[in-house]
Fold this sequence. Notes:
Layout: H1 2-22, H2 30-55, H3 60-69
Amino acid sequence: MCxxxxxxxxxxxxxxxxxxxxxxxxxxxxxxxxxISPSFRQLGAGIGISLVAAVDRPSPGDxxxxxxxx
Length: 70
């Protein structure tokens, strides 16, 4: 259910974000403006995933124990 709500939220906000980032740009800058938005979104996702992985990582002993159970 959470994934459905997340998908609906993202699906409704991405078009608005695209219009907001390119709406006031002159015609000759439209390509760069439309490329910057997904670039920063991907950069933010990468940094966010890295931070979560750094903070929420298991200790080496826990990881070894989980590996041995398999």
